[in-house]
Description:
It is a single chain. It contains six helices and seven strands, in the order H-E-E-E-H-E-H-E-H-E-H-E-H. By secondary structure, the protein is of the alpha/beta class. The protein has a single domain (about 1-170), classed as 3-Layer(aba) Sandwich (Rossmann fold), CATH 3.40.50. The chain is globular and about 35 Å long. It starts with a helix and ends in a 7-residue tail after the last helix.
Amino acid sequence: MRRLLVGLIVAVTLAGCSSNEPTGASPTGTAGAAASFPTTTDGALGSAAVESEPTRGVALSWTDADILLALGVTPVATARTTAESGFQPWTEDAMATKDAPAFLEGANADLSIEDVLSYEPDLIVGTKAFGLDTRYEQLSAIAPSCTTRAPHPPRHGSRPHGPSQARSVAPPTASA
């Protein structure tokens, strides 16, 4: 069941990378077919083909770490936040494992491609990082890379990753 759920979330996340427009659709009972691997989607910067359930995700921002954790994947590497631990407070428990993620060298336009490569990721998520337009080709040569163009309003952080599913987990706020 967990594998099916993780597969569904990955498929929805990757499928949502191609559009920021809400669909108005609601989750259905036919989700099992969407959870199978391999799966391919066209994202904002290119195509991402995920051959199997990801286990070694790299998060290019703290938002992307949230996405990977929601998929049941503890990132092998992530961007450092300004919090003392380097992780957002709501992710500290999940990140405080014996295999706690390493922090990426550089961020945004200063991201070290060699550093990302050293973690041998099977999925790279970059929905909030600036400078991806110039780095996408290099990142996608390392692993399937699900990206969006930044900047976009913070309230839209989860919308590109399955609007109806994102709303079922976290309904929009009054300002959304």
